[in-house]
Structures
1.
Amino acid sequence: MSDTNLVYAYAVLRRTPEAAAATAHPRGVAGEPIHLVAPAVTGPQLAFAVGHVPSADYAEAPLQAHLDDLDWLESTVRSHHAVVAALVASGTAVLPLRLATVYRDEDTARQALDTRRGYFLSLLDRLTGHVELGVKIYAAPDITPPEAGTEPGQDPVTALGVGRAYQVIRRRRQRRNDDAWRTVALAAARLTETAGALAVDRVAHTPERGSLAGSAPGTNIGNDAYLVPKDRVAAFRTGILAAARGVPGLRVEISGPWAPYSFALQPQPHEETAA
């Protein structure tokens, strides 16, 4: 087996001079040059943007081992995204592929394009002229989800012992927190409705918790991706920030524009087999 006989596919796109030119500069996950692979068929031309990668790293067994190495995984994700971003910058519609979409050879990649030709073309038609924007909604660090079993009402403070008074104070603080949480949650729901009206599609991702949340302050209560026409990106940002303005305890982060990762359904996963 050749050490570089596997084909790593980064994205699906139409085969155009602009797309071909966009592959001239980026390097892939193994530092390899990128080029287009297209099937020999008539009609609208599709292509994979691909590179040749070492089987020692990207055959099924070593790849699975690498995916447990966070440093290797982070480097690979960055390189993969850099190729996709270069293609997007060419102005062509791009369907980003999942990380480590690997084929045995270029003929196998061409067969995959032929097999899913209509599917890929319909997605490209849908995504042409659109980008992905991310919207994360946070509740302030001092606002936490309500405790189970909390009930409304006021506790009298007069004529209480110290221990009882402490419990009353704690319950009142919890009620204030619960009221603040409800305010933020209602505002987040309204903001999501606003974003949905400004976009053409939405994918709701799981809110980030623990180490996934990074250093962002507060509790992530919304983590969504929106498909937005390129000419509406500024209006989308303005509308979302206006909807969030003045709501105490609410913070919004808008990221992008990105390639439409959340809206590009993927081909079959890792298809390489050792020979």
2.
Amino acid sequence: MPEKSSVAFLGLGHMGGPMALNLVRAGYRVAGFDVVPEALQAARAQGIPVAGSALDAVDGADVVLTMFPSGRHVLDAYLGGPDGPGLLAAAPAGTMFLDCSTINVDEAREAARLAIEAGHRSVDAPVSGGVVGAEAGTLTFMAGGDAADFEAVLPLLEVMGKRVVHCGGHGAGQAAKICNNLILGASMIAVSEAFVLGEELGLTHQALFDVASAASGQCWALTTNCPVPGPVPTSPANRDYQPGFAAALMAKDLNLAVNALDSTGVAGEMGALAARIYGRFAAEGGAGRDFSAIITDIRDSSSRHAQGQHGPGQHDGGDPAGERAGTQLPDRRTTTAHDDGSPE
């Protein structure tokens, strides 16, 4: 690809907008588009060139970069439909299709297959680092694809991120992302439960943090995104749990992990339970809060339990299928959270 490739950047939301802006600032020729008028307006105000449609943006592009909410959005955009041709048909032969969405592994592999069969190249490269990382150009990219194609997109990814890892063939980037976020979601729940338990046992937040952050309980959810205010001044807990990484996106990513657990036959009980907990939290008003706000849900449930709102002998967290998990598992093929990006 040319040193400063022409990039069609499709999906200019909370993550995509800052990423596109960093490419513009680095000298890339960017044509952006988003179906949400407010996103287009914000991009234009920041100096990102925008096209009249996705097909207009793709015309003449060296790279088509997609940042969509779900795999269904990616596949539909690639293929088109009754309303017109898709991106694969509109792009010049040999275009690099770089998908930075977070989607199911099998959907990523299908997208790559379709792109290659249409005469194009393909890399999946989901991101982590959240909105702050997107704005600062410090994202982590987990890439899947052929080695030569990975090398071709590496300079572009390095503009938007500080760490880029080639994880393997097509779909491997998505695999790494969802495995990592399974760890993150489950660990944030455990850290939050520990802080609520510590409160009940008379520990100060700082005392528990000082011990666990230097002992075997140390993890990213504790030392970087601490769910209580005070010990980590930059954590969302100090700003009323403004995201960061929204609970709706954590629920989405855990749902993708559950899809993968099901398709592979892995007995991942913690992943399934974490998906239920975050799915319920998002559905009951927590969707737009940082995922560390799950601690507030644990406190509320604990308070209800202490006031006798559960039957004798019941405990909110005792059964993976029990009352605390709340609802049935979400539809494991539905991923509807808007935009994308993760902090880990």
3.
Amino acid sequence: MPEKSSVAFLGLGHMGGPMALNLVRAGYRVAGFDVVPEALQTARAQGIPVAGSALDAVDGADVVLTMFPSGRHVLDAYLGGPHGPGLLAAAPPGTMFLDCSTINVDEAREAARLAIEAGHRSVDAPVSGGVVGAEAGTLTFMAGGEAADFEAVLPLLEVMGKRVVHCGGHGAGQAAKICNNLILGVSMIAVSEAFVLGEELGLTHQALFDVASAASGQCWALTTNCPVPGPVPTSPANRDYRPGFAAALMAKDLSLAVNALDSTGVAGEMGALAARIYDRFAAEGGAGRDFSAIITDIRDSSSRQAHGQHDGGDPPGERAGTQLPARSRTTTAHDDGSPE
């Protein structure tokens, strides 16, 4: 690809907008588009050139970068439909299709197959680092694709991120992303349960943090995104759980992990349970809060359980809300991006 390639940037939401702006500032020729008028207005106000449609943006582009909510959105955009041709048909031959959405691994592989069959190139490169990382240009990219294609998009990814890892063939970037966030979701629940238990046992938050952060309980969910205010001043808990990485996105990413567990036959019981916990939390009002706010749900459930022991409510050991729906295959959520 030519240096300072022209980029059609499709999806200018909370993550995509700052990413596109960093490319503009680095001298890339960007044509952005989003189906949400407010996102287009914000992008235009920030100095991102916007096109009249996705197809207009793609016309003449060297790279088509997509940042969409789900795999269905990616595949539908690639293929088009009754209302017009898709991106694959509209793009010049040999265009690089770079998908930075977080989607199912099999959808990423299908998107790559379709792009290659249409005479294009393809790399999947989901991101980690959240809105703060997108704005600062410090995202982590987990890339999947052929080595030569990865090298071609590397300069572009390095503008938007501080760390870029080639994880393997098509779909490998998505695989790395969902495995990482499975660890993160499970560990945040465990850390939150430990703090609530510590409260009941008379431990201060600082005492538990001082011990666990320097012992075998040390993890990112504790030392960087601590779910209680105080020990880590920069954590979302100190600003009423304003994300950060929203619980709705954690629920989405864990649902993708469950899909992968089911398709591979891996007996991932903790991942499946974490997915159901976050899905319920998001559905019951926590969607827009940081995923570390799951600690508030644990406190509330604990309180209901304690009262149930006296007023005929839930029996001891049966926390309200743990009887959750069976695994379901889903890919829908809002904008993308998650902590490193």
